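Dear Dr. V.,

Thank you for agreeing to look over these. As mentioned in my earlier message, I'm a first-year student in the group and I'm still getting used to reading structure tokens, so any feedback on how I've presented them would be very welcome. I ran two proteins. I've put each sequence directly above its structure. The first is here:
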Amino acid sequence: MEPIDIDEADLRLLELLQTDAARSNQALAEAAHLSPPTTLRRLKRLRASGLIEREVAILSPDRLAPVLGHGLSAIVEITLERQGAEALDAFEARVAPEPAVQQCYRVSPGPDFVLVVHCADMPAYLALTQRLFTGDANVRNVKAFFATRRSKFEPRLPLNSARPTP
């Protein structure tokens, strides 16, 4: 992976995009204290470099509940029997494409993986566990925590505190 050289203006743009990626280029340029052509050029470079993976909408589960139902959200800890690189890669490759798995993290210490899972209901969750966990001889332990309420969801990296001070 080739490193990309970014400066404070790039960090400002990334921070602004994390709070609202739907801003127009003009509004983004104004908030970042850059010209619109410079903003467009920088954003194109940040996307091409892979620093911006994708831009998504964050939906409100409570507002959608009357239409779709509340659904079921769970934080799931997975511990594998064997933790070699091949076994970890194989498990990750199997769960990552699953639409109900919203996020997948390899973690240490403790369990090997933490998943954020969203299903329509408990039967859908049980089917998911059968498909992904029970049928895998390498899965030693599954521990699920079911969400009763989301009080905060902030999909942001702390960009200002991530850089070492000179």
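The second protein is here, in the same arrangement:
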Amino acid sequence: MTLLVHAAALDLTLAGSVIAVPAAERLRHARSLTEQGHWVHADRIEGSYRGQAGVGLDEVHELAGLPDVRLDVHLMVDDLEGDLAALPERGIARVTLQCDGRDDVVDLVRRSRHLAPEVWLAVHDEPLALARLREADADGMLVMLTPPGQPGHLADLSRLRLVESARGRGWPAGVDGGVTDEGLERISAAGARYAVAGRALAGPAS
């Protein structure tokens, strides 16, 4: 079963990560994702998170200008305040803040509200993830199944326990990192309704 068919059968919303394709092909890929009804996931990766090149701020502005795009901008940067100030004020459907180790999450969510209808928190090594989600009044949680910004890792499906905990409290949850067709059953069973796929959605076999 292909990723697309399997996700549809599980009622799982897919987002395609544009960093899975070369920079010159990202707008085309984003248009294709939008035409197929998928979200477009744009990873900003800088500072201590930088294990691979992310999407530039100029690219985010271009993506936000695409007609009918549902754009999720995932900020994996040390200077979250600087990135928030530089994002376009129109065209973003969701801002996702990588918040591991941050003690200013409430303020960051507040600052993000004028940029997008939804603000989610992305977590990896964060034991207080659910408490932070509640405290910040975020709209959902993105659970990283691989280390943020770092390529070459397989999805750690044991981290789906965070999805289960979030969904048990009625909060929307999704997953990102190493998502393939093989893991979709467990991802869906844990309660995730949103999944970010990179190469698995960019290639011809998706």
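From my reading of the second output: The mean pLDDT is 91. Residues 157 and 183 are 8 Å apart (CA to CA). Does that match how you would interpret it?

Kind regards,
E.
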